[in-house]
Amino acid sequence: MSESTANLAPRPVNPLLADEPGARRLLLGNEAIVRGALEAGVNLVVCYPGTPSSEVPDTFRRIGGGGRYRLEYSVNEKVAMEVGAGASLAGALTLVTMKHVGVNVAADPLLTMTYTGLPGGLVLLSADDPGCHASQNEQDNRTYARFAGMPCFEPATAQEAKDMTRDALLLARELEQPVLLRTTTRVNHLRGAVEYGPLGQAAPIVPFQRNPRRFVPVPAVARVRHAELVRHLGTAREKAEHSPWNTVRGDGRFGVIASGISRAYLSDALHETGWADRVKVLDLGMTWPLPEDLLTDFLSECDAVLVLEELEPLLENDVRALVQRKGLSVAVSGKGGALTIYGEYSTQTVTQALADLLGETARLPMACDPETALPVRPPNLCPGCSHRALYYAVRKVFGDDAVYSSDIGCYTLGLLPPLRMADFLFCMGSSVSSGSGFATASGKPTLAFIGDSTFFHSGITGLVNAVFNKHDLIVVVLDNGTTAMTGHQPNPGVIQEVLGNACVHLDIEAVVRGCGVADVVKVRPFNVKSTMKALAEMKERSGVRVIIAEEPCVLYARRTLKKPRNQVAYVAEQGPGVVDCLENLACPAFFRDDTGIHVDENLCGGCMVCLQVADTIKARKRSDA
Amino acid sequence: MSTAATAKGRIRIYLTGVGGQGTLTATTLLARTALDQGLEVTSGEIHGMAQRGGVVESTILLGGWMSPKIGHGEADLILGFEPLETLRGMTHLAAGGSVLSNTEPLPPVGVSTGREAYPEMERIRAKVEGCAAKSWFLPCRTLGLQAGSVQAGNSVLLGAACATGLLPFGPEALEAAIRVHLAPKLMDMNLRAVELGVRAVASAS
């Protein structure tokens, strides 16, 4: 999402690339990560976009970099991880970025590259999403630091996002081991003043030295490398013991150990309550491996300790184990009450937990009563969105007889009534394979909806499987020509003119046919009649059938393709077709007032689908066209 | 304004509007204004699907806050870029806090289709006046169009906020920031919008 910077003035040299040590700039957390990577001398950035991580690669793309680094939008996170690992083997200082669930996709290579190590240095940015602001789950990827064996940094401010990214990359190169930079949505999307360090030069490439006994983990090698990983983690723990990111402040017999954004809530809660002089605080910024000596010293000086961490009680359980192992006598508290395993923390939840620790009463702010029964404002498919047109046609042809397997993208928003075009969803690419399974067990007509970027991400393997195992399924590829949901990033389906020289366009139909699908039809969803005809014909057939619904995203057509639609719809006469548009097409450009149903010209995307639904709706030239 | 907060110069501003309105650009502009004035700034935004017409909430915290989040009862000032969202956001207002709100609705889809009713402006005013120490209501869309575009309505609201005396800087700081940070072609229009916001506050008091 680039709305926040779209209208701000362009500068001759992008401020993120300015070599002005000591300068203070207001940066988005994700922009601060970019600056930190530049200060470390990053050579290569590889990503798959996903909120809340997307502004990191998108910023690298926007500022160009003048040859300082190479940027790649890979087709999925596993591929991104492997491209990054290969480049780091070849000696490049590499940053790989993705959202938390992407790390699941990338986990296979990740859990072995910590065995081999990566001489050029590699940092994985995992942008977690406590609170599920833009995600299907709120998994805690600090788990991966422990699972894969990676040192982990968790910034809480824009300044720390910059500095920890730099330090993580430098540590990755020093140890030759992958390092995790774990953020959460609040950190990715906060803005704060960032004081620059020197920009420096791009890092030197570390020459590759063939060493199959390190880099080819056949069982005999893997056994040795696992022991080697444990040794590396010991070295990393020494670093954590003395890290400037792990600090103790304050005095007293009550201790608080805090990590990630919880440190911000703690800091503000202590200021607001005036309890700062009653607790001793251990701020953990480098959170894995645990600085056990530092923790042991801290714990032995306390009678009671509160652990603050969002999501899983990882730190808390480790602290409890340490207390047991060292035979310490200190009461440990953490999860429970206001401190839940789900959702985000806040200054108020932390204030309550501090009050419980200190035996005080929390004075939480008074708020006015929430208003009930307000109209909701759910995100919606845009006016002029081709997904709405396609969904309208599918509902007309299949109704409630079919089952709809959805996927990750704008088109998931089709779940809302009246379209109701999503019955289940797990993750990127699941529409095709879960649709296959559902169809097999239920015998019901099943349609899988998948976007172009998601198809390339992980739809293809499901399609190959569906052909191979003779599943009975209609796959609808909603090809809007771009990665719309996350902000129009390149993917292999994007046309060559937009991709430019750096990338090559791949034809979805050729890929589908190459996967062995013989029953393939292309439709233009803005032509409702022919789309419905194609759907009705496919309904009568069986086996794996693919419909490619081709129409550029309305925003992308306007902004990037420079193809605005200069016609708008208007209601010439009220009638049942107009009501059908309002109630069943549910285009947000329609509204009802005392005089009837109308189209808001400013909102109308010009798709002209409504003209095909209601013959009393007509087209005219846009007023300002 | 909660007096304790003002006294310490620690102010929490909650901004709320609708995706596509440009409220995040406005938030960034106000945050940059504060930084240019030498203040400690933390700002935040939540906009998972902002371009798709959902609610967009953002925050600006001045004077040394570390968290970018504003919870219920914590905002010293609410800037509502859309009246229904002002009403929905009122739970964030601190005791003694103030509100500036646009009065011109962007109806959500349930209202457009006639399934839900948009709350009466009188209900919104009554709620705001019942909760806030001070409040101002401005027709931002109309004033924005007067300045040159609908989007300039955001600068009307920012200009008005700076003119209330509740912030540690006045409209001239915002004007200076507009000259530095906005694209030249947008500058004059936004300066006119700030002026309209300042005048609206002056005529209201």
Your description of this structure?
The complex is a heterodimer of chains A (625) and B (205). Chain A is an alpha/beta fold. Helices cover 39% and strands 18% of the residues of chain A. Chain A contains 22 helices and 23 strands. In chain A, the strands form six sheets. A seven-stranded mixed sheet of chain A has the order 3-2-4-5-7-6-12, sandwiched between helices. In chain A, strands 9-11-10-13-14 form a five-stranded mixed sheet, sandwiched between helices. Chain A has a five-stranded parallel sheet with strand order 15-16-17-19-18, with helices on both faces. In chain A, α16 links the parallel β16 (446-451) and β17. In chain A, α1 (29-40) packs parallel to α6 (158-175). The model of chain A is unreliable at 1-6 (pLDDT under 50). Chain B has 205 residues and is α/β, with parallel strands linked by helices. A six-stranded mixed sheet of chain B has the order 2-3-1-4-5-6, with helices on both faces. The longest helix of chain B has 21 residues, at 184-204. Chain B is globular. The two termini of chain B are 16 Å apart. Chains A and B meet through β8, α10 and β21 of A and α2, β2, α3, β5 and α4 of B. β8 (190-195) of chain A pairs antiparallel with β2 of chain B.
Shape, per Cα inertia axes of chain A = globular
Largest binding interface between chains: A-B, 62 and 70 residues
Counted beta strands of chain B: 6
Structural class of chain B: alpha/beta
Put simply, the count of helices of chain A is: 22
Question: Taking strands numbered 1, 2, ... along the chain, how are they ordered across the largest sheet of chain A?
Answer: 3-2-4-5-7-6-12
Number of continuous helical runs of chain B: 9
What fraction of residues of chain B sit in β-strands? 15-25%
Radius of gyration of chain A: 27 Å
Radius of gyration over C-alpha positions of chain B, nearest whole angstrom: 16 Å
Largest sheet of chain A: 7 strands, mixed
Q: Share of helix among residues of chain A?
A: 25-40%
What distance lies between the first and last C-alpha atoms of chain B, to the nearest angstrom?
16 Å
H/E order of the elements of chain B? HEHEEEHEHHEHHHH
Average pLDDT figure of chain A: 95
